[in-house]
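Technical note accompanying the year-one report. For the benefit of new consortium partners, we illustrate the data format agreed upon in the data management plan: each record pairs a sequence with a structure-token string. No post-processing was applied to the example shown here.
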Amino acid sequence: RALLLSRANPGVPAAWIIYGDALGIAGRPADAARAYESAANIHFDRDVALRLAAAWSRAGNPARGKQVAQLFLTQNPNDVEALRLAATIALQAQDWRNARRLLRAVQAQTGDADSALMADLARASLESGDHAAARIYAAHAYRLMPANPMTADIYGWTLLRTGAKGPAAIDLLEKAVALAPGHPALQMHLGQAYAATG
């Protein structure tokens, strides 16, 4: 039905977006991206830009997703959602300094009350070598949502990686695994912590 809709309305961006959404749900992210590109060629706005960048990333082409996000940011430099998407793409590419710059731009507009943003800032700071900032961001993320496995993990992992003394790192990583026992990254962090501390 979405395909028929897009064929019946080839000049309407929303018809292509609906078709792209349907393809994405069907597990065809590259085809979804091509549908979103048809919408973008008609009208390049936030809805289509965010979908297009995310679809290319899911399709295994993060470089193309990054290009889309950067193009939209060039035209809309203060768009929070586009900044957040570009930061996510940078984190996935392990471009820590750029991710941190983008995340700080989001923080400047939205404040410090987003635990996921604080956790991402902690990770980007940790990986770019700013251990003091990483600890501050990780601790704040955990304070905002202490029952969230991701905030417990980033706080424990940051303490471990920055050489904190005492059992706090292990306790936090154990808590993260207890909250989300099926998450392999959390289990890996806890295993590495056990190995590092003997």
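Partners are asked to follow this layout when depositing records. The mean pLDDT is 94.
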